[in-house]
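User: Aa3 type cytochrome c oxidase subunit IV, Phyllobacterium leguminum:
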Amino acid sequence: MAKHHKTGAAELGAPMDYAEHEKTYSGFLSVAKWGTVAVIAILAAMAFGFFAGGPFSAVILFILICVAAWFLL
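Assistant: Predicted structure for Aa3 type cytochrome c oxidase subunit IV:
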């Protein structure tokens, strides 16, 4: 029987770098969270700017939503 070596493909039993996996997953969750916040803020600001008038007020609302999300999340 052949000796089992700890190198090679993961399917063959190579050790996994769990710290790097966790770091990558944490980064993915962070990007997904802030991307969702940005999309919601943009949509809310666009609706506010359309119905309440003026692009300046929409930009202010967008900034306020992003700052509020920063402190709440």
